[in-house]
Amino acid sequence: KPHFQGKDIDITEENLQARIRGILLMAMSNKHGYIVLSTGNKSEVALGYSTLYGDMCGGLGVIGDVTKTRVYDLCRYVNKLEKKEVILNSIIDKPPSAELRPDQIDLDSLPEYGVIDNVLEGYVENYLSIDEVAQKYHISQEQVLELVQMIHAAEYK
User: Fold this and answer.
1) How far apart are CA 81 and CA 93, in angstroms?
2) Which of 41, 55, 98, 132 could serve as 128's disulfide partner, Cβ 3.0–4.6 Å?
3) What distances in angstroms separate CA 151 from CA 33, 48, 85, 101, 157, one per listed residue?
4) What are the helix (H) ranges across the chain?
5) Is-above-0.85 flag for pTM?
């Protein structure tokens, strides 16, 4: 009997896509001596919006300590510096998405990355309390608490 028979489609199948991609990239790395650069940024990894053995695989996490909003800033900076679209504006302007199911965007399940990144700065980097983060960045305590709970739940990754 197939293992998924009778089960609803959920994040399990979505993660398979990321894991298959990771396996293929690591196979290319092994075969050709390449290094795989993992794609997870600080914001995604902190909240668990990355897949073990999927987009987290790789030998080097070049943007692993860079928040999502800073990644976009860096993309715009590269284009400005080079005076051309090295990174397509259509990619920069597109709503963030894991692209693991049709029409999926991160805002379906997360607040704006500016909010997330402020919580990361305040709570993770500056050791502020939930109340202090809420007050400093003008974010509701409920939203800060929810994000902090996500951060703690994702620590195993």
Assistant:
1) 18
2) 132
3) 34, 7, 34, 23, 10
4) 11-32, 42-47, 68-82, 89-93, 113-119, 130-137, 141-153
5) yes
